[in-house]
Design goal:
With about 450 residues, this protein is mainly α. It is about 80% helix and about 0% strand.
Length: about 450
């Protein structure tokens, strides 16, 4: 904000300097007016002794009116100038925002240009590399053209090239055979992994099998990546070889017989390549089957994990309930007022734990003589589940201790008996509330 204010003030000063330089007469007039206004500002009032000692004549009324008119005109001019400055300040702010937007756009363009320059540099290096490759290829073609001129060496060189391609194809066949053997091994491992159902109880062995499967998947991905790289290299080599053969075929019109032999060998190579493509398609189909088996195994593992989680959760709930029962003394559901009686409710275990916690919190307030708060908590606990007759009994017990809540206490006792008619504490509370109130004893007078 301070930088923006300083920039605006600097631009205003520059603009004022330019305007004053363009209109010198206006600047002189304005300075004279300012001097006149300063001269016309009244001085500080003097003391009574000084006013009495000095006997200067008072200014005339007309002169004061003229000065006031001049001051009012000057104030209007200053207001107009302030409005113009505010408008110029808004324009400057707008221009500053436009400048910020343009700077951001320029920054993005600079970044794009830097990225483009990096891409161009990369392309330039690639082009230089390709030029060097083309120069090497041109030298090789020149050498082969000289060999074609000799005639007899042409066939030997062509046979050598074909032998090299056959060796490459043999390497590809060996790589594909190795990959096929690895896939067969992985397939056997997957078939062995299908027996995981019989080993669900042995969790340690299952984790080891899962780790082995993940390692096998990683190796499969690495092998597929290597195969892709090899296939791309082979395609590039085949394309370069095709281009070279097309260039050489223009100079091989005199050696048609040898070219026919080369074409026959190329047809054999194409046949082998088609066989390799068919084998690759088979391998891909087997990979798909392996992926399907892996997905099915993952589903079975997720189901097993869910079952284990449910078993663990049920085990924890049973252990918690057993520990709670061991901590509490023996109780009678029709006669006990302890929180453990909630365990006899035919409700889910989570709901029972919640009701027990609410009952204990309310009893802490009841035992510390916070009866109103305890009554509210007991009402919430009774309303939390329609089978909670223990909370209904305690709500009636707390209402009994409150003033003018006898009817409400009786209603909660009846509520508890509606849920469990055999609940003796609620029966006793009802009898006590329905009994007629004893009249207060009158104190005798002396």
């Amino acid at each position: 904000m301070f930088r923006k204010t300083a920039l605006i003030v600097l631009m205003l000063m520059m603009f004022c300097a330019v305007s004053h330089a363009d209109e010198p007469q206006a600047a002189l007039t304005e300075s004279a007016d300012v001097i006149e206004v300063k001269a016309e500002v009244p001085e500080a009032p003097k003391s009574e002794s000084e006013s009495e000692s000095e006997s200067e004549p008072e200014p005339e009324q007309d002169e004061l009116a003229a000065r006031e008119a001049a001051l009012s005109e000057r104030e209007e001019e200053l207001e107009v100038l302030g409005d113009s400055l505010a408008a110029r300040e808004l324009e400057l702010v707008k221009k500053e925002r436009e400048f910020a937007a343009r700077s951001a756009a320029l920054t993005s363009k600079i970044r794009e240009a830097s990225g483009t320059s990096a891409v161009l540099l990369g392309r330039e290096t690639q082009i230089n590399k390709r030029e060097m490759d083309l120069m090497a290829r041109e030298a090789e073609l020149a050498r082969r053209e000289m060999a074609f001129a000799q005639g007899s060496q042409k066939f030997a060189e062509a046979a050598g090239i074909i032998a090299g391609r056959e060796a490459d194809i043999a390497k590809r066949e060996a790589a594909l055979a190795e990959r096929e053997s690895e896939i067969n091994a992985k397939t056997s491992a997957k078939e062995a992994a299908d027996q995981i159902t019989a080993r669900e109880a042995e969790l340690v062995k299952r984790e080891a099998a899962l780790t082995e499967r993940e390692a096998t998947g990683a190796r499969l991905q690495e092998l597929e990546a290597n195969l892709t790289l090899r296939e791309n290299a082979l395609k590039s080599r085949e394309e370069s070889l095709t281009a070279r053969e097309n260039a050489v075929s223009e100079n091989e019109q005199k050696l048609s017989s040898q070219n026919s032999e080369i074409k026959e060998s190329e047809s054999e190579i194409a046949k082998k390549e088609s066989e390799l493509a068919a084998r690759e398609s088979e391998l891909e189909a087997r990979n798909k089957q392996l992926d399907e088996k892996t997905a099915a195994l993952a589903g079975r593992e997720s189901d097993l994990a869910k079952r284990e989680g449910e078993t663990a959760r049920k085990t924890i709930e049973v252990n918690e309930l057993e520990a709670l029962i061991k901590e509490l003394p023996a109780f009678d559901p029709n006669n006990s007022t302890e929180a453990a009686m909630i365990l006899t409710y035919n409700i889910p275990a989570e709901k029972r734990r919640e009701l027990i916690a609410m009952q204990r919190a309310a009893y802490q307030k009841y035992s510390s003589n916070r009866i109103t708060q305890a009554f509210e908590d007991y009402v919430k606990a009774a309303e939390a589940d329609p089978a909670n007759y223990l909370a209904a009994y305690w709500a009636g017990l707390a209402a009994e201790r409150l003033r003018n809540h006898r009817d409400e206490a009786l209603a909660w006792a009846n509520k508890a008996l509606e849920i469990n008619p055999n609940y003796k504490p609620a029966q006793e509370l009802k009898q006590r509330l329905e009994a007629p109130a004893r009249p207060a004893r009158r104190r005798g007078t002396r």
